[in-house]
Amino acid sequence: CLSEEQDMIQKTSVMLDLRSLQMPFSNTWKYGILALAILLLLVALTVLTCQMCQLQKRNRTGKKKRCHSEGWVRIKAENGIWGKKTPPLLHDTAKQSDADIKATELDEPCTRLISSSSRTKDLSSMSSDSGLLPRSRGTLKFSLLYRRERCELLLTGLEAWGLPSRGCAESAVRVRLLRQVPSHIPGLQCVVQEWQSPVVKNCSRPAFGDHFVCSLQDAEVEKSTLKLEVQRFDKYSRNTVLGEVRVTLRELKASQRLVLCEELQETTKDIVGEVLVSLKCLPISQRIEVGLLKAKTTIPRSTADKNVYARIDFSCRRHRKKHQKSRPRAHTPLIIFNETFLFHMPEPPAWDCTVLVSIYEVDSDPRHLIGQATLGKTRASEGADHWDLMRKSIQQPVAKWHPLLI
């Protein structure tokens, strides 16, 4: 009996040992480890969220500091160190090299004038009202000299800086000498002479090392204006006008050089004549008839005994049709064309069309533009009124005078 009891005890001990091997951890330990893992995951997510919030705050503060510094630099450049208004580009002209100064010096006594003060005042008032700083188009520096004994105007020292950078581009300056003409057309002017500077390639501060000379009488100085346009050329031979500078020559004094540093302004057109155009809508044949009747232009001395022709461009829904040309005519004060041109109009009629009438000189290289007139719904008031009259008068020609602009 004792031996059987001992065998039973041994068997029960073995069974207990096997159960202890099969269950090494209790349920309490399991739940404790799971809770600890969840706690560590929450701590990691909290730390990650805090780091992302701090990174966003740093980016915002960096942008604010950068904008504040740029605005302060612009305001400081405009208003000066002590908050007073300084002439534009005074520091740039003071830093000009001795070689440039010697290149623009002449034998006659000179007077230096930093112009465009009125324009900078207007820009400063606009910026103060709107709270925004004006965007600079660039600056053009040049010198003018009127030699009374020779009756000629001399333009030298053409230099530009601060132009908008668009990669590698070519820059040039087109100069036009305009003179007021008494006429019933308000603001009519005559292009006395036109000249273009050499093209400068791949330069952030182009210096156009050439001079422009034009014969000008004393009586014409008071009525003349010099217009300088800074143009940019790309690889597709398309020119873009960056800005212009206008100088009234009544400020010039005989035998005294006037040095100007002018900020480029937005380009404006000048009236050099007018053209009589008729429009006729033909909805059945889906065409528009453009009649070129007459043109009035001012004839300077340099364009005597020359012929002109007209080119008509028609575009509908921003798609340009093939242009048409008129026959050459003599360049007289009143040019008689009396020609009609037909252009196809899509169905249904699209009224967002534009007609461009351009008058050029014959056998001029490069092609010389005399003036342009634009008609259409989205054009100026006169062109839009003419277009509305054509829409109301179906199959009836409507003629109207339009100014020639350049």
Automatic annotation (TrEMBL):
GO terms for molecular function: calcium ion binding; calcium-dependent phospholipid binding; clathrin binding; phosphatidylserine binding; SNARE binding. Coiled coil: none annotated. Keywords: Membrane, Transmembrane, Transmembrane helix. The chain crosses the membrane at residues 31-55. InterPro entries: C2_dom (IPR000008), C2_domain_sf (IPR035892). The keyword Repeat does not apply. The keyword Transcription regulation does not apply. One of its GO terms (cellular component) is axon. Pfam families: C2 (PF00168). It comes from the Eukaryota. Residues 136-262, 271-402 form the C2 domain. PROSITE patterns: C2. SMART domains: C2 (SM00239). GO terms for biological process: calcium ion-regulated exocytosis of neurotransmitter; synaptic vesicle endocytosis. Belongs to the synaptotagmin family. This is SYT11 protein. The lineage of its organism: Eukaryota, Metazoa, Chordata, Craniata, Vertebrata.
